[in-house]
């Protein structure tokens, strides 16, 4: 077993042991996530059925082309992971040990493929649902994914020299297009350079057509992922800043004010794409609740990150509790969800100086 | 061949920025060479080149006769390096980190190494995760990683930083023991005060080139007559160079 594989196996073992040690919390998280998944399934089953009906109306060649596109996009995650792992290996703690390049490359490829398959799974499952009972669509996606993943693994990126680039964005003084660039930067650092060309090709798809619905769904998922990246990025930065400023006479809330406006602006820009899609859809009135949900989620996430900046595990648990509570309240009677949100925010705000 | 490390006319640049130029240095078995120099003088870059992590633009580096550029694996088998404590994997325990390092050398973990770790007062931490350790404890672990497999050449970059007095003393004693047993150590350091009692030779690196070297005789003389003389000599040399005027 190569040292990289051994380290990964030990890491997984440690993670399982840590989760076992916190058995109550782990059980709760699993239950919460299962409940959330079930509720989410109930919520999205109707739009999915609508989407399936639209896809059924598409000409066969177009549905097949879309499935191939999903396969190729999924394969790009293999490339992204391969590049990330190559750069990590160039300067990690094992780089000066006597490990052959072949061993390191083999681990890199296996791991990138594993991560890529996990990332591709939701897309393949969606295609299986849309094409049911015929297995053609997921098979087409898989046949586009396989050579794409193979090519991605065959490509050996050049390891970057010197200090690895941090996906740092300016906190202040960004205006106009710079804000957009800074908003997308943390996410774009994870994309291959060719992603922008693929994105530009979407402009060729005619408005109001069935494919546009699928593409809008993909874009929304991408923006959501970019938003999560943005949150993770700022979570790291906020924790780092809080750590080195903790000995200074600076109130933690001032740090929060420093980050909050920028994050809100950037989140708004990221959410603009799916919101624009809703505005142009047959149900434009859905724009208001969607915009409200995006804003409230962002405020909630920022405050949660700030309050639990020293305890990332607790942040996950608290986020799960809040999310489940809000979704459940929204199912019972929507106004209670807003009230619950306000209470959560108030409780978090009272702990802002922690 | 008695030379374990041989650096000939090594040059390295990042783009237009020249980091090393015309560096000549060699280490024989038993040498404990101190590489000193101001911040940004190229010490870490030189060490990375020795490890095969940077490609020289000119010159060559050999470890026990093996060219680092053409056979980095063979060269790394013959040298141990203490990684930056910040890079150690936080999700593994101390013992697991050493197991992974030993697996890279296709060896089981040496009992002698664990005993030395206990000398460094690591016994209570073997099964703790690295992320829960202090900087000094991580530094001790990094030193142990360099010693895994008893490589004949040790390349150490500022490894005495953050160590408590006992650990610092024990590490210095261990380095001396290993040199006496036929290993060689390249130690990049800013700790000039301890140099005469620890080092056998020293080299001053400034602006990417070796500005001055001190041989074993000079250092042994300072050790007995004036332990502070090395620090004065380094400062005087640096002040005498044009770029520091």
Q: Can you describe this structure in just a few lines?
A:
The complex is a heterodimer of chains A (354) and B (245). With 354 residues, chain A is mostly helical.
Description:
The complex is a heterodimer of chains A (354) and B (245). Chain A has 354 residues and is mostly helical. Chain A is 78% helix and 0% strand. In chain A, helix 2 (23-57) packs antiparallel against helix 8, helix 6 (177-188) crosses helix 9 (252-279) and helix 9 (252-279) runs antiparallel to helix 10. Residues 161-174 of chain A have low confidence and may be disordered. With 245 residues, chain B is of the alpha/beta class. Chain B has a six-stranded mixed beta sheet, sandwiched between helices. In chain B, a hairpin with a 2-residue loop joins strand 1 and strand 2 (17-28). Chain B is globular and about 50 Å long. Chain B starts with a strand and ends in a 5-residue tail after the last helix. Chain A binds chain B through residues 1-3, 6-7, 10-11, 14-15, 90-101, 161-162, and chain B through 14, 51, 53-54, 73, 76-77, 81, 83-84, 87-89, 91-93, 96, 99-101, 103-105, 129, 145.
Topology diagram in text:
The complex is a heterodimer of chains A (354) and B (245).
Chain A: H1 3-21, H2 23-57, H3 60-89, H4 101-131, H5 136-154, H6 177-188, H7 195-201, H8 210-245, H9 252-279, H10 287-307, H11 312-332, H12 334-350
Helix pairs in contact in A: 2-8, 2-11, 3-4, 3-5, 4-5, 6-8, 6-9, 8-9, 8-10, 9-10, 10-11, 10-12, 11-12
Chain B: E1 3-14, E2 17-28, E3 32-36, H1 43-50, E4 58-63, E5 66-67, H2 72-77, E6 79-81, H3 94-104, H4 111-119, H5 135-147, E7 153-157, H6 165-180, E8 184-188, H7 195-198, E9 201-206, E10 209-214, H8 216-225, H9 229-240
Parallel strand pairs in B: 3-8, 3-9, 6-7, 7-8
Antiparallel strand pairs in B: 1-2, 1-4, 4-5, 9-10
């Amino acid at each position: 077993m190569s040292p990289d594989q051994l380290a990964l196996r030990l890491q997984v073992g440690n993670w399982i042991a840590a989760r076992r040690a916190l058995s109550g919390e782990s059980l709760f998280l699993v239950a919460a996530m299962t409940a959330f998944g079930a509720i989410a399934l109930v919520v999205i089953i109707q739009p999915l059925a609508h989407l399936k009906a639209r896809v059924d109306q598409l000409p066969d060649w177009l549905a097949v082309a879309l499935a191939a596109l999903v396969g190729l996009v999924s394969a790009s995650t293999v490339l992204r992971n391969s590049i990330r792992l190559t750069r990590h290996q160039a300067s990690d703690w094992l780089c000066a040990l006597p490990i052959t390049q072949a061993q390191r490359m083999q681990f890199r490829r296996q791991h990138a493929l594993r991560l890529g398959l996990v990332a591709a799974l939701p897309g393949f499952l969606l295609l299986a649902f849309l094409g049911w009972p015929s297995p053609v669509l997921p098979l087409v996606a898989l046949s586009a994914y396989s050579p794409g993943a193979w090519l991605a693994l065959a490509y050996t990126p050049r390891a970057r020299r010197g200090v690895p680039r941090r996906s740092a964005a300016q906190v202040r003084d960004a205006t106009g297009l710079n804000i957009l660039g800074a908003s997308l930067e943390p996410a774009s650092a994870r994309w291959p350079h060719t992603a922008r060309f693929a994105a530009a090709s979407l402009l060729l798809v005619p408005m109001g057509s069935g494919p546009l619905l699928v593409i809008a769904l993909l874009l929304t998922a991408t923006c959501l992922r970019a938003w999560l990246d943005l949150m993770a990025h700022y979570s790291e930065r906020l924790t780092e800043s809080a750590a080195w400023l903790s000995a200074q006479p600076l109130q933690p809330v001032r740090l929060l004010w420093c980050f909050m406006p920028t994050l809100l602006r950037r989140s708004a820009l990221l959410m603009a794409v799916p919101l624009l899609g809703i505005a142009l859809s047959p149900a434009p009135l859905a724009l208001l609740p969607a915009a409200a949900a995006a804003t409230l989620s962002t405020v909630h996430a920022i405050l949660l990150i700030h309050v639990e900046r020293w305890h990332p595990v607790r942040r996950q648990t608290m986020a799960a509790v809040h999310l489940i509570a809000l979704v459940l309240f929204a199912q019972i009677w929507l106004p209670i969800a807003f009230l619950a949100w306000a209470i959560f925010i108030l409780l978090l705000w009272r702990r802002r100086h922690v | 061949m008695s030379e374990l490390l041989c650096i000939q006319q090594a040059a390295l640049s990042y783009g237009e920025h020249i980091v090393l130029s015309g560096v000549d240095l060699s280490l024989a078995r038993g040498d404990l060479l101190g590489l000193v120099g101001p911040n940004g003088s190229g010490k870490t870059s030189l060490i990375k080149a020795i490890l095969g992590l940077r490609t020289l633009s000119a010159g060559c580096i050999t470890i026990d006769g093996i060219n680092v550029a053409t056979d980095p694996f063979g060269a790394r088998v013959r040298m141990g390096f203490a990684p930056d404590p910040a890079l150690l994997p936080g999700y593994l325990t101390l013992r697991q980190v050493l197991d992974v390092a030993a697996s890279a050398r296709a060896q089981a973990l040496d009992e002698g190494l664990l005993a030395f770790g206990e000398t460094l007062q690591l016994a209570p931490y073997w099964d703790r995760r690295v992320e829960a350790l202090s900087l000094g404890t991580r530094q001790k672990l990094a030193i142990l990683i360099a010693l895994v497999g008893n490589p004949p050449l040790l390349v150490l970059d500022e490894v005495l930083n953050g160590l408590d007095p006992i650990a610092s003393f024990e590490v210095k004693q261990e380095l001396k023991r290993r040199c006496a047993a036929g290993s060689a150590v390249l130690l990049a350091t800013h700790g000039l005060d301890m140099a005469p009692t620890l080092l056998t030779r020293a080299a001053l690196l400034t602006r990417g080139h070796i500005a001055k070297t001190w041989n074993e005789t000079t250092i042994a003389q300072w050790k007995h007559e004036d332990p502070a003389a090395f620090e004065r000599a380094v400062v005087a040399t640096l002040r005498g160079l044009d770029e520091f005027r």
